[in-house]
Amino acid sequence: MLKILVIDRCHFTRTGMEAWLNHTDVLSSSLLVSGMNNLILAKEHILQWKPHLVIADLYGFLNDALPEQPINAFFAACRMTPLVLLQSGNMPYRPQYASHAVLSKHTPLHELAQRIKGALHTHPLQEAPESATPLLSPQEEKVLAMWTEGTSNKEIAYALGIHGKNGLHL
Predict the structure, then answer these.
(1) How many CB atoms lie within 10 A of CB 103?
(2) Exposure of 21 by Cβ count < 10 A (0-12 exposed, 13-18 middle, 19+ buried)?
(3) For labeling, which of 10, 13, 85, 163 is most exposed (least CB within 10 Å)?
(4) Any stretches that span the bilayer, and where are they (predicted)?
(5) What gap in Å lies between CA 131 and CA 116, rounded to an integer?
(6) Which domain holds residue 62?
(7) What is the value of pTM for the model shown?
(8) Rounded CA gap, 11 and 15, in Å?
(9) Domain match, 11 and 86 both
(10) Helix 39-49 crosses helix 68-77 at what angle (to 10 degrees)?
């Protein structure tokens, strides 16, 4: 499954791009598309989620009080991820920022699709790790299993030996 992150301050562009990627046969594999409108959160999302492709319009972030720091951090996070930049403003991106393509937001969708495919083919896809860290501890799994069976919170606490300080919210 390919993971694609769309970053844009414009809600309509972001959701439109997500919908277009999800509902067309742009790519022949299944997709997981996520959209963000915050550059600092996007940087962290890139580092944690490790998307296969980032599509971003950074023009809306250039009007921030100190745009250089988050933009530089964003590009540092993208150094191993293919990046397609969309350009909505008049100011061109600096060549110091490495990207697979810089396209106008007026680019036809078929050309955008070709650039996306090209960006994904230039970088080898990284496979998911063999083993993943469990999301819940064994104790949490027991609580969840009992809770989904309809066991009351007090019965769960009694059965699992959960007391005051470690189970106030049961």
Answers:
(1) 18
(2) buried
(3) 163
(4) none
(5) 29
(6) 2-122
(7) 0.71
(8) 6
(9) yes
(10) 10
The residue length of the chain stands at 170
The answer on 169 and 85 residing in a single domain is no
Render pLDDT for 1-41 as a digit per residue (tens, 0 to 9): 899 999 999 999 999 999 999 988 878 788 999 999 999 99
Phi/psi region, residue 150 (left: phi>0; alpha: psi -120 to 50; beta: rest), is left
Distance CA 119, CA 129 (A): 22
